[in-house]
Amino acid sequence: MKRQDVRLKTVMLTLVLISTVALIVNFWPGADNQQILDDAALPADSQITTQFNSAVNALRERRHWQAIEGFRAVLDEAPTMPEAYVNIGFAHLELKQFGLAKQAFNTALELRADQINAYWGLAVSHEGFCEIPAAIGAMRTFAHLAKQDNPYLKKANSALWEWDQLKQAAQLRDDTQIICPQ
Asked: What is the CATH number of the domain that holds 105?
C-alpha cells in the first residue's frame, strides 16, 4: 500500500490557518487597529505643531493623501523631523504603496536610528513585498528596542512567529521561495 506524502498539504493548511487567525485578530471588533502613529515632541504653540497634529488627525481618519500632504508641509518647515517621515510611511502603507512607505521609514531611521515605530513600519513594508527575511530583521529590531509594556510588542512577536512559519514552510518544500499569503 502506497502512503501519500501529506507534508505539502499540512504546510498549506498551516498557512491558511495562520492567515485566518491573523485576519481575525487584526479585524476583531474593538481591537486596537490603529497604526503606531507618532506624536512628535513639539513646542505647544508652534505652527508646525498645528500642522503636524492636523496631519495626524487626517491619518487617523483614514484621509491618507491629505495626511501625506500635511506631513510634507511639516517637513518643509522641519526637514529633519523623523516623526513626520514615519507617519508618511504609515499613510503609504495604508495605500499599499510599499516602496514609498519603505523609503519614508528608512529616511526616518537615517535621521534617528532609535525611532522605534519606523522599524515596525519598515517590517510591514518588507512584508508587502514578501521580503520576509528583511521583515523579520526589522521587526526583531522593533521588539529589541521596545519596552516590555509596549502595547505593540505582542503583535510584533505574533508577526515574527508567523513569518518564521512561512520560512519553515519554504524549508519543508526544499524551496528558497517563501510563499506569502495575500
From this structure: 1.25.40.10
Decide if 25 is inside a domain.
no
Owning domain of residue 138: 39-172
List, for residues 51-81, the tens digit of each pLDDT value: 999 999 999 999 999 999 999 999 999 999 9
Give the end-to-end CA distance of the chain in Å, rounded to a whole number: 38
Residue 111, burial from CB neighbour count under 10 angstroms (0-12, 13-18, 19+)? middle
Tens of pLDDT, residue by residue over 99-157, are 999 999 999 999 999 999 999 999 999 999 989 999 999 999 999 999 999 999 999 99
Lookup result for grid cell 503583535: 155
Instruction: Give a yes or no: residue 23 inside a domain.
Output: no
Residue 91's CB is within 10 A of a number of other CB atoms, namely: 28
Q: Check residue 158 and report its DSSP letter.
A: H
pTM of the full structure: 0.73
* d(C-alpha 84, C-alpha 78), whole Å: 9
The structural domain count of the chain equals 1
Residue 30 lies in a domain: no
**Residue 9 located in a structural domain:** no
